Amino acid sequence: IDGSLFLSDNCRLNANTARDQGGGLCLAYYAGAEIVQAQICNNVSSNLGGGVYANYASVDAYDSVIAANHAETRGGGMCLENETYAGVNATERPMLVQSNSASAGGGVWVGSNCTFAAYAFDSQPFTIGGNSARAEGGGVAVSNGSFSAVGDVRISANTAGLDGGGLHAQAASQLAFAMAGAGAWIHANSASNGGGLCARDADTFCQLYGVLLGGDTPAEGNYAGANGGGAALFDGAMLDAVSIKVRHNRSNLNGGGVYAYRSRVDVNSDAMSIANPMLPDTWFTHNRATNDSIY
User: Fold this and answer.
1) What's the confidence (pLDDT) of residue 237?
2) Sign of the torsion formed by the C-alpha atoms of 213, 115, 133 and 198
3) Is residue 81's pLDDT more than 70?
4) Nearest Cα residue to 122 out of 150, 143, 96
5) Which helix (DSSP H) or strand (DSSP E) does residue 137 occupy?
6) CA dihedral defined by 224, 199, 107, 64, rounded to 10 degrees?
7) Which residues face 251 on adjacent strands?
8) Do 188 and 214 meet the contact criterion of CB atoms below 8 Å apart?
9) Can you tell me the distance from the alpha carbon of 64 to that of 174, in angstroms, rounded to the nearest whole number?
10) What's the pLDDT at 273?
11) Can you name the residues that pair with 92 across neighbouring β-strands?
12) In this structure, are residues 249 and 287 in contact, taking their beta carbons and an 8 Å threshold?
């Protein structure tokens, strides 16, 4: 599509295939799509974007399900490339990106100069869960792009063969995750490095504000087969963590909670947390590693 598209009221794009891009939906060259309470499921692309592929385009999705799609290369659920904007919102119903798979970005791939903005309010969660990547970014992979999440957004039970079970950011990407209302949660994800979150390269910046990184029980924690059960940073990446809980994460080697190699981690508690009981102090607790919890 190189014009505009509106999908709504339980409209379904189901069990379609593409040889190259966009198994369910392909948007290119300034096309726009609005997806409202629709389902994009069981689609396959031999290359990019199993469910949705967008290139120089815009996508607004509300209260929809993007599930069980597959792309051989990038973006099992959604693949954004070349200055594409995607606004994904949970308003009247939960929003789900679930059980998708790809080599990178099992749930979502956010490419060069692209923006993915997620919002979840009014007691309706937005979940990126149960997605898988053979390499990096089981839930979300960001490469020279921007990913932001505000509200009750949950990155849950995603897996990656290499880096970033929940989230992976590289190549001067920007990643921001902030609590509002019920909270934000990165939990039960797994990878070789950075079970919950992995960031690589100079000028890659990640910010977590009021987020629970891990869980209230060991089963809800993130896991790394090597380094950084909760989060792993490499080669100049930066993490700014404010009023977060890092809890019940584990790794087989270093950094059950957080691992940083030639990278910077700033950890603070927001002064407003004293007056706002919804905003926690910063805690590192019940994380486990063969060597150190914080490495």
Assistant:
1) 97
2) negative
3) yes
4) 150
5) none
6) 120
7) 224, 289
8) no
9) 25
10) 43
11) none
12) yes
Whole-angstrom distance, CA of residue 232 vs CA of residue 292: 13
Residues 71, 118: Cα–Cα separation, whole Å: 22
- Residue 282 is classified by DSSP as P
Q: Which residues 6+ apart lie within 8 Å of 73 measured at CB?
A: 47, 48, 102, 103, 104
22's tokens: 């966009």
- State the amino acid at position 12 in one-letter form: R
Using 50, 70 and 90 to split pLDDT, how confident is the model at 281?
confident
Tell me the one-letter amino acid at 183. G
- CB-CB contact of 168 with 195 (8 Å): no
Tokens of 48: 């990019």
Rounded-to-integer distance, Cα 149 and Cα 289, Å = 29
What does the alpha-carbon distance between residue 222 and residue 201 come to, in Å, rounded to a whole number? 22
Write the pLDDT tens digit of every residue in 161-218. Answer: 999 999 999 999 999 988 755 568 999 999 999 999 999 999 999 999 989 999 999 9
Q: Determine if residue 179 is left, alpha or beta; phi over 0 gives left, psi from -120 to 50 gives alpha, anything else beta.
A: beta
Give 282's pLDDT tier (boundaries 50, 70, 90): confident
pLDDT at 130 over 80: yes
Tell me the two tokens of residue 114. 């692209």
Q: Which two tokens stand for residue 180?
A: 């509002």
The string over 75-93, giving b where at least 16 C-beta atoms fall within 10 Å of a residue's C-beta and e elsewhere, is bbbbbbbebbbbebbbbee
What is this structure's pTM? Answer: 0.94
Q: What are phi and psi of 274, to 5 degrees?
A: -65, -40
CB atoms within 10 A of CB 294: 17
Q: What distance in Å separates the CA atoms of residue 121 and residue 241, rounded to the nearest whole number?
A: 22
Spatial strand order in the sheet of 184-187: 12-14, 39-41, 65-67, 95-98, 126-129, 153-156, 184-187, 211-214, 245-247, 283-285
The DSSP symbol for 194 reads -
The Cα–Cα gap between 67 and 76 comes to 9
